[in-house]
Amino acid sequence: MNDLLLLIPFIGIFTAVVLSQTALFSHTWEKPWVQATTAIVAILSSIGLVIAFKDGHEVLMAIQASEWSGVAGIVLKALRADFSHPLFDGVNILALIVGYYIPASGIRIKGDIVSTPGLIMRILVIGIILAAIIGTSGASILAATLLASSIKERKYKFPIIFAFAWTVGNIAGGYSPPADTPIQLIFRRGVSLEWIVQQAPLCIALCAAVLFLYWLVDGIIEYGLEPIEQRHLDVRNYVPWRSDRISLINFTLMFVNGACLMFLPSGGLAEAGMLVVAAVSFFISNPHWQEEKLDWAPYFELAAILSGLLAAAIPVEVLLGARVDMIAEHIHTPMDMFWVMLYSSGYFDNGPISLIGIEMLRLMKEAGIISGNLVEPLGVPSIWLRAVEWGAVIGGLTTPIGNFPSLYFLIILRKKLGANAIPGFLTYTLVSTVVITVLCIIIVPMFLK
Predict the structure, then answer these.
(1) How far apart, in whole angstroms, are the C-alpha atoms of residue 285 and residue 281?
(2) I need a surface site. Which of 44, 234, 356, 389 has the fewest CB within 10 A?
(3) Are 135 and 278 in contact (CB under 8 A)?
(4) Which residues pair with 242 in a beta bridge?
(5) How far apart are CA 116 and CA 122, in angstroms?
(6) Domain segments of the chain as ranges
(7) Is the pTM of this model over 0.85?
(8) 301, 35 Cβ separation under 8 angstroms
(9) Banded model confidence at residue 74, pLDDT cuts 50, 70, 90
(10) Which residues, 6 or more positions from 86, have their beta carbon under 8 angstroms from its beta carbon?
(11) ∠131-137-142 over CA atoms, to 5°?
């Protein structure tokens, strides 16, 4: 069997996501049966291909028999170790997401602000702060809800959408355990809160770089090109934002959800606390969801994409194991690790990729290949751990599927504003590549030399 056939499920789900972002196919993709069928086909084909791939089985057997040595063996063992504790990591991440998504969906904020660049900048700053406290998932839902009503009069929406997806949906989660999956996984492995908070200056610098680019593009250039009638319409439609008591309770529950992760022991108690938060939120929010006929379609779409992508990632990881020598040749320094994490995260979500990177570091340390000031209890050099974390965080910017809070943010805006109002998959990826290049010019001298 040709090992490249293992790419088929990923190519299929990847193509479906790309087409879903286009005006031509978005209406077809929005049908629930199309989304469900795509996910089921991806899952079943992934399972079938992995079973049929005998070479992949031999690779895993070689790992268990320790027949591989050096860097090649380390990469193989790291890929294998990704499946050694999926229950704890998977349940923890799922509980955290549910604990944020349900309360966030119960927050009703109505209104229509005048979307000037200055006001958008202030909202961005508030969103970045909130993302570190209530998580990028919850903050992305709030941002999408607010922006959907407030930027509908704008002709040039892309700079606003990019700025929120990159900062509130991604980078802002780089220094707070409840905020985003890569740092959450590091925290779950016992890394001190002090080490995590030390990443804040770097996170702030990255967010500031994005804000500067936003102001340069929208504040100086595109807002000046807005048709005068669009600006007048934006002013005429102004309605102050307002909320209600249930929304305030749900907002408080999002803080409680983050506190469960921070202060309760994971492996059972923390996850139970987060699910209780979700249940309480569902109980108090359900009446007004029924009253307003809440659209659950974005949640179903995200679940279909998430399940399909995670299933399709398994045969790809088997393929990486079969061709591990090519990977091993390029991982000799923290900078190499950074680039591997960066380019992998854009296509396989930065959560699972960061998990592989963390396990790889542990194995490299055990083999005596890496050294430096250790971060306990992982026992790996700090500079290498930062390479994994920030490679995964920044890599999540590369495509819409690199970070699920950003993906959900785009899904909500597409539902409310239409496919033409948001960047298509290729547009998003091309623009993000340019931005990542700029960010990496900033980040490399700061921590990888």
Answers:
(1) 6
(2) 44
(3) no
(4) 110
(5) 10
(6) 3-447
(7) no
(8) yes
(9) very low
(10) none
(11) 75
Residue 404 token pair: 């699920």
Written as six digits, the tokens of 77 are 């063992």
Range ranked top by mean pLDDT from 265-269, 291-295, 331-335:
331-335
Q: What is the pLDDT of residues 394-447, one digit of tens each?
A: 888 888 877 778 877 888 888 778 778 888 888 888 998 888 888 888 877 776
